[in-house]
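Data availability (excerpt). All sequences and predicted token strings are deposited with the supplementary files. A representative entry, UPF0301 protein SAMN06297144_2097, is shown inline so that the format can be inspected without opening the archive.
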Amino acid sequence: MFAAMISSPFLTGQLLLAMPGIGDPRFERSVIALCSHDEEGALGIGIGTVIDSISFHDVLKQLDIAVGQAPDVAVHLGGPVEPRRGFVLHSRDWNGADTIDVAGRWSLSGTVDVLRAIAGGTGPSRWLPALGYAGWSEGQLDAELTRHGWFNVAGDDAVLFHTPVEQRWEAGFARAGIDPRLLSATGGTA
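Structure token line:
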């Protein structure tokens, strides 16, 4: 029973929110869905910014996949690592060969199978596409979390799938009862 009360030090399935003044313009007001975090490192998909120059239909056409029933949604800027690599964050009601379950909250797929399923009308009920990812090496995210820069909150389907992109950052803080307008851009010392 005691072991069940100990929580994991890892943040898989949580949302990572950039604090004001994070110091890296690539991550200002970022919202990152953490899909993997363990002793070997972390991987997350940015869900707070979209890429203006490409749409989901553009991605399908580039991969010679017929648009079919797929809506032409925005493609998210998943992160600065491998910006041409695609991912789909989605509800757990669809599963492909490469799909990983993210802490029982949502799933992540990274092959064309999920794109074909979406276009064919047999894909997940909720989904969002992204190009690139945010990645941290062994211990890197853990060290960053000890400094001013990131704040984590529990993963939330409403923020992920139902909140407009431009409101996700504020909505993430609101989940924790925080008004981000009151946050300082600098960290203090105690």
